[in-house]
Structures are given as structure tokens and as C-alpha cells.
Amino acid sequence: SQTIHQWPATLVQPVGSPLSLECTVEGTSNPNLYWYRQAAGRGLQLLFYSVGIGQISSEVPQNLSASRPQDRQFILSSKKLLLSDSGFYLCAWSVGRGGSPLHFGNGTRLTVT
Amino acid sequence: GIQVEQSPPDLILQEGANSTLRCNFSDSVNNLQWFHQNPWGQLINLFYIPSGTKQNGRLSATTVATERYSLLYISSSQTTDSGVYFCAVRYSGTYKYIFGTGTRLKVLA
Predict the structure, then answer these.
(1) Residue among A43, A88, A109 minimizing CB distance to B99
(2) Closest CA of chain A from B84, distance in Å
(3) pLDDT value at position B1?
(4) CA distance B1 to A104
(5) What number of H helices and E strands is found in chain B?
(6) What are the per-10-residue average pLDDT scores of chain A (113 residues)?
(7) In 3-state terms, what secondary structure has residue B66?
(8) What pLDDT, on a 0 to 100 scale, did the predictor assign at position B76?
């Protein structure tokens, strides 16, 4: 069966420090991968998605970037964190070009101090 | 632009009551899902329902794709139903899943 791993679960980082969040999917090939962010008390905002290795689509211009170095690995990065980068970051996957369910990891709660 | 709207934004129920949550979308979809976000932030997939009706215990959902809406029914609500309910849609021809604004449900004992 397919599983998605996302780590760390919580992270406290100072302003100006770098960020790297990793997400891996097991049990499926060529998944579509997604990064979402949820600010406190708000909805989910799509940040990036990828439909193949090395392919990244950015939805919101901001202080973050994403990379997909391997088929089932999706990384969210920042060179210098801002206070406004605080939030709950969720990785998700789906398969195929047609309709298929979206599956989420457990998320990373990031606090920038 | 692409929009997914949910109503009501907030809902308070007494335990045992029934409720209906609504999701409106603006174009044809090839995926619609209902999620429950628990107090720990986990998104629990309730239904994958781009069209038709499904039931799972006390929960059921109906999507009328031609009229661009979906409904989530919660019957005999329990305190453990509390949390935020999101619908998410994937419009035809895209890979993006867009989330609605959510309905925050609180069930009182």
C-alpha cells in the first residue's frame, strides 16, 4: 500500500535561517506531488506541485522554493526564513492525469521566531 | 478565477443533531473530496466524490456536478465530529487541487 512520510513534525527556526522540509512517497510510481501551507485558523494554500522529476509549478511567488530530485521525493526549501513563513506545511500526492484522490502526510508545524 | 466556496463558515451543534455542509465550485471537475481536519491538524479523507452519492456510517455526501455543488451530511453528530471540514476540487484539465474556505464545526456534549 502507498504511504507518505513527511518530517520533521515540528520545527522552530530563527528568522534568516535556511529551511529544508522533505516528503517521500512509497508504494507508487510517478506520483503527482504537492506542497500546501496553512496559516493559523485559515484554509490550505497550494504552494507548489510537480508532475515529474525536475518539474515544478509554483503557485504563489514568495520566499520558498521546491525541488523534486527523485521520483518520489519532494523538498521544500528557503534560503532565509521570514516571520510570515510560519505555518503548517503539508505534503500530498495523487496519481494520474484524470480524477484521483489526494492523500496527505501528517504535516510539519513551522514556527519562525 | 477558480473558486471553491463553503458554507456555513461556522456551525455549532448539540450532540445528536444533524447538519448539512455545502461546497460550491465554479467549473467542471474531475475530482472532489471532503476532508476532516482533526485538532492535531491531520487531514482525514472522508469521501472521494466527483459525482453521485456515497455513504459511510453517519456521514454521506452528494455531488451534483452539473449544478456545481456538493453536500456533506452529518447525522447524529458526536463531539468527535468537531473540527474543520474542507472540500477540495481538481478542475478538469489541471493537476491542481483547490481547497474551499472550510466549515468549522463544534459539537457540544
Answers:
(1) A43
(2) 9
(3) 59
(4) 25
(5) 0, 11
(6) 90 97 93 93 92 91 90 95 95 85 94 97
(7) helix
(8) 97
